Amino acid sequence: MAKKRPQTKAKRPQLSDGEIPVVGAREPCPCGSGRRYKACHGRAAAHAVTELVQRPFEGLPGECDWVALRELVPAATVELPLKGGLPEGVPSVTLATVLPMAWPALRRDDGSVLLGLQNDTASGDISRDLADTLQQALTAKPGTPVQGRRAPADGPRLQDLLDPEGTFEPVVHPGFEFWVPDAENATPEVTASLERANAAAIPTVKLTGVDAAYWCETPEKNHLRWVMPHPEEQLLDALARLHAAGGSNLGEGTRLVGSFRAHGLTVPVWDLPSGVGAEDVEKPAAEFAERLATALATDAPLTPDERRARGGLTNRQVTLS
């Protein structure tokens, strides 16, 4: 009987995670493990894509206004400065709350870019999805919309593309005429589309005396919704102190009714009488900001009345993801 020759196993090539290409979920993983891609390196890639980023706009100038424009404001635009300046042939990049046909982005005939903010995203990181759409728009053919897609898990985020020293100054519009360069001479079809969009928009005004506070008008009553950057627990304690002391309102007939969380930040909400406009709450809001700063600096334990007030505020919280 012939002797068996000794078997020698060749070493598998060792690839780093960054060198593993993306293949079909049911195909063998390129790393050589013998397992399917979805059960090997594909598992980490899928998790990176679907994992929810709680504060997607953290680190961007104007984080609170990013949240407001994403969740609260019907029609607004902001000029976006890019790191290293604008590419050749792109005269401007403008963030818009929403675009016609819910397009993720639009490259206009003159080469300028409009980036839509209030769109569904394919992953748990809004910042990465928006950055991917922006990159597509910067190289798209002028005069064409850009469709969304699932951004690569290792792709850049807005924090990588936008100038960290730039400003973020939203301009709130009464309607969506910013969609077209010359709304007065638009076609009847475009005019009708604008009229429908404008009719559905809730009148909204950004306060000028405080940051990220937005007045809006509804048929029953008006509201002030104020996106705040403070840590949630600290902010709720401060609001509870003011509420228990009778200092949480914005004038006669107004009432702090609760708050909600959106993209990692807390947004207190006040009910306002229907006759109270945005200009009427400018001074009360500035005075409230001073009272809030004092309450935020207080670290004494909450009194029984303050704890009850905090419990009421907490029970009236909702979350917008």
From TrEMBL:
Gene3D superfamilies: 3.10.450.50. Residues 1-12 have a biased composition (Basic residues). Residues 56-320 form the DUF5926 domain. InterPro entries: DUF5926 (IPR045970), SEC_C_motif (IPR004027). Pfam families: DUF5926, SEC-C. Keywords: Isomerase. The keyword Coiled coil does not apply. One of its GO terms (molecular function) is isomerase activity. Residues 1-23, 302-321 are annotated as: Disordered. This is Topoisomerase II. It comes from Streptomyces viridochromogenes. The lineage of its organism: Bacteria, Bacillati, Actinomycetota, Actinomycetes, Kitasatosporales.
